[in-house]
Amino acid sequence: MIGIQYGITSLLFLLFGFLLMLAMRYQLAHPGQPIPLVGGLMEKALGEDMAKGGVMQADLYNAFGAMHGTIMVFLAIVPLLFGAFGNYVTPLQIGAPDMAFPRLNMASYHLFFWGGAVMLSSFFIPGGAAKSGWTSYSPLATMADSNFINGQTLWLVGMVLLITSSLLGAVNFIATIIQLRAKGMTWMRLPFFVWAQFVTAFLLLLAFPPLEAAGLMQLADNVLGTSFFLPTGLVVNGSKPDVSGGGSPLLWQHLFWFLAHPEVYVLILPAMGIVAEVIANNTRKPLWGYKSLVYAVLSIGFLAFIVWAHHMYLTGMGTKIATFFQTTTMMISIPSVIILTALFISLWGGSIRFNTPMLFALSFLPMFGIGGLTGLPLGFNASDIYLHDSYYVIGHFHYVVAPGTIFGIFAGIYFWFPKATGRMMSETLGKIHWFGSLICMNGIFMPMFIQGLRGMSRRMYDGGATYFGSGVGADPGVLRLNNAITAAAIALALFQLPFIFNFFWSIWNGKKVESDNPWEATTLDWQTPTPPPHGNFATEPVAHRGPYEYSVPGSKKDFTPQGQPG
Amino acid sequence: MEFFSKILNLPDVASAHGAGIDQFIIYIHLLMAALFVGWLGYFLYTVFRFRSSANPKADYAGAKSHFSSYAEVGVAAIEALLLLGFAIPLWAKAVDEFPTKKGDAKTDPIEIAIQGQQFAWNAHYAGPDGVWGKQGIQHASATNPFGLDSADAGAKDDVTCLREPFYVPLNRDVICRISSMDVIHCFKLPRMRVTQDAIPGMTIPVHFKATKPGDYMIICAQLCGNLHSTMKGEFKVVADAEYAEWFAKKAASGGAQSFE
């Protein structure tokens, strides 16, 4: 139940974050033009200084930018992967009747919901929402607004609620996976999805607390007059602000990135888990290199904590520290490559079925490949000198999250929909959704690498018109790419319509499943009634074999369920 | 290399160390291309060959070759080579090997203090006397961002460029000491392959040597407020003689016109 609650809420946030981006993309391709359809609404709802004449003003662009990142990461992707898929599928796959702490789970959901409400409300207060990036670097985060209660303050309050929500969730997952596995469900018989959720829970548990502390410290800077992150000697707009000084902007960066780097593994590991389940099922053979997958995901879990300063190479870092972080960053690329390669090799020898979940799972692989590979020139500091804060970075991380993680999420939705509802989603609409999304995602993010290599920087409200429109360094090609990218973004939006329609229509009108296991899957989540009742299983499950016993030689069927005795 | 630079859309490099960075970027992209083409080729072949209509019965054991393990070791080795052979030396050269003053006015590095502010770039040179004018926050204002003390003798000939292009001589070492007055900015000279965060409360040096004359762009590469996208600066690389003429004129005209 809570999985479904998380699922619907976070899908709505995903849509909202997407709409923010569409408005931004329109401004980038047509700077200074009123936004069609919603421009007037924006002016009415957000005020004249934000959207005069329906035109996105610079402050609003920065607010949309900061909130797009925040909402996508903390209100959409993590709650979908961890809160929705995690809570729904994990207990089923380990053979547990429920999560270990249902009340803690409910508290977790409420903190997520109210954190989200606080974040959304910040759009409507004077000064608007937080506008200093999802990264909220000080001193800008403290200096950007003059009102006492402002968007940044609400952002910090919202973050404290969301972080607490994830911490409670992490405790729940760790306890559940350790304690509530069914008889016979040994560690090395766990589906890879569960391993991915397990490591994700540890990442959340250990990485979030420094950011929660830093958030409270920045909140104190904003409302209590402290200077944790504000140095001495500031002169803003010709005058000296009333701050005590003595603080360090770098301290905020360290505390922020200590979480935010492991956070990106939180964003990818559960998606890899989903992709692994769908691939095993639709190749009709066990995953290749199960042990390598497990050791790789554990390595990522450990290494994730010691790479964070690769986001800070240009802060005046010396050679020794830069060498340390580059080395750990290169090291972490190894287990990531191992996981991707194991999934690629799992295809070999299979009997591949091309249904909608599998199409998304398959295309995840090269898309995540592009995302991961483009991390290499960013992870090396000498090349980062040129590519830092450029559109190359935006291309890199969006490839990993958008045609990466989000494709994993789509695969999971099409795959587990019949377990939750007893009906299949339409394959035709699913294939249209898949094909259009794949083409458009590439249309949006591939040109960004070119823009970055040509020197275009991020977070430019006018789309780079000032820098590249005329005068020294003019480069109209960069600006023309803005239009192509925006067109692809609008097309991507249109291709989500079949999905949204399919999702709701199929709840009542989708083809009814003929069995509890329409995909003929081996894992315990498909050995439950549809939908799973209170207690999940009709009879207590026992694991008798590994999770991917497909096409076992000598067996009559091409799959042997994990819970089947003998 | 030129060929790959064009494919990658890298703008013409105009600094001495920049070619090394471009070469490094190219090598990394060659590795990326090799991996991507390899993976993609294998992937497309595999989903075609093992589609269920062509292969109705899956093989429980799957791939048995150990090629992937060797390939993995190969990739790790190449990454180590890039790290040890290129990344670390390039960074060390940028960060540990600053040009030093030897007392020769013709070849000593030019030192410029760069101050980012919302929303412009300012430059400050010690004047012909070679003495940096005394600075203090009590003097700082919108027209005197460097807080120069008008009573100080050393400050009288200091050269400041406020919201206007600063000049550097061709083929001369330049050391820029980067800081900020208010929020974090980032001093990025794309054609020079120079980037350095401008952090208030810190002064961070960066050095380069411009090898082509011309007018160049300064980009602010860190979100710094609502007019971040308009914070375009400019600097000019000119021949020695022209630089000397400009410098003398600026120093003489009460070089720092920012005094109150």
Describe it for me?
- The complex is a heterodimer of chains A (566) and B (260).
- Chain A has a two-stranded antiparallel ribbon.
- Helices cover 64% and strands 1% of the residues of chain A.
- Chain A has 566 residues and is mainly α.
- Chain A has 18 helices and two strands.
- Chain B is α+β, with helices and mostly antiparallel strands and 260 residues long.
- In chain B, a hairpin with a 2-residue loop joins β1 and β2.
- Helices cover 31% and strands 23% of the residues of chain B.
- Chain B has two domains: 95 residues, Orthogonal Bundle (Helix Hairpins), CATH 1.10.287; 143 residues, Immunoglobulin-like (Sandwich).
- The N and C termini of chain B lie far apart (52 Å).
- Classes of the chains: A mainly alpha (566), B alpha+beta (260).
Summary keywords:
heterodimer; A: 566 residues; mainly alpha; Cytochrome C Oxidase, Chain A; two-stranded antiparallel sheet; globular; B: 260 residues; alpha+beta; Helix Hairpins; Immunoglobulin-like; 2 domains; five-stranded mixed beta sheet; 4 helices; 10 strands; 31% helix; elongated
